Input
Amino acid sequence: MIKDYKIDPRPKLVIVLLLSTLALIYNEISMLFIILLISLSVSLLIKSDVAVVFFKLKKVFILMVFIAIAQSMFIKMGQPILKFHNIVIITDYGIRSALQFILRISIIVVSATIITTSTSREIVQGLVQWKCPYEIAFMVSIAIRFLPILKEEMSDMIIAIQLRGIDIKKVKLIKKIKIYKYIMLPIVTNSILKARELSLAMEMRGFRAYSTRTSYMVLKMNRLDYLIIASSIVVTILFILIKAM
Amino acid sequence: MNAVELNKLNFKYKSVQKRTLENVNLIVNQGEILAICGVSGSGKSTLCNCICGLIPNVYEGEYSGEVKIFGQDISLMSRAEIATNIGIIFQNPSTQLFSPTIEDELAFGPENLCVDRNEIAMRIDEILKIINMEEYRYENPNSLSGGQQQLIAIASVLMLNPKIIICDEIMSWIDEGGKEIIKNLLMNLKKQGKTIIIVEHDIENLKIADRVINI
Output
């Protein structure tokens, strides 16, 4: 049924909001794992590209694991698991905190992929029809639009540096940090210039010419959309009740 | 009536010492294609920004003189009036397009001006036919070539049905095929009575102009 039906962006926003809330409420690893499984199932059911997103965020996940290990090493509560002479390196509590962190971030990332099945325009329209001011909703979509531009700027700068004979992959970490420090200024400057051009183009197309605007796209929620919202809220309340008990 | 009239226009950017525009007087006739040429930094884009009201509304600096659009002082015109009278297309098409589909991109301008939904639909059909890109209606603008993106940027401006169209070096990023399509489109717009101001370096692209001025 879901396969053939295009779900309105609003139930998706509700699902993401509820899943992220649950991820923050729960501390138990088993429950966080269940919430992650639910997020994955919903994400796959809605046909979002979870695998692609995970692949794109590969480096972030490595960083996440690194942060988790660091967290585990610096939290000294609980029973020590790994000791070096008298210095406690890892405790069971630290490992649990690291796992909680990884699971929480994974839930948020997986649930966020649900939104990616709608276009930014649909999300903006969904928010607008929920009485969110157009300017704020549009600002969010423009911010998303700018992420690839920043990435493009970054890769252009790195190519420019490599063309000058510096192989950034072979450079030592401290020098690498220095290089990144140098390229940040042109990246930010170019991004600001591009943002300015975009704002001029918007201005010349009458953005905020009037206090209201018409909308060519009109979203209409169906029974299934309402059912998804209602069932998501019910499931979340159940989870909160379980937590309270 | 003249489409554009500049009287004793002066402008100096806040950050520079010298005036970019000094005592500029210019008349653009209705329905003509005027080409503006000049070396880099001579103030071509600044002039365009003055004609479309971005100076002094957006860019800050020392401004004096008069810009009249169909006899009306631009400083007295509302944002909606400016948008329906003048459209400007910039050099880089990718920074002018921000919607996930071409349809959304084209609808953006008329939506801002509170145009009725049915009217927007009609305009989209019409404009896509003019630029011969009907089959791309639901495509993401980022997936198009530079020439196609520039055509969409032009189309999104045409959606507001402006009487004056300013093209600020719009062909500099485009291949020969794309340039021909854009030149043909500009010629057709001229036949429809639009006033076109083009800023150009390439002599080949100036052939469509009725008049060329150097600044």
About this structure: Chain A is about 70% helix and 5% strand. The beta strands of chain A are 80-84, 87-91.
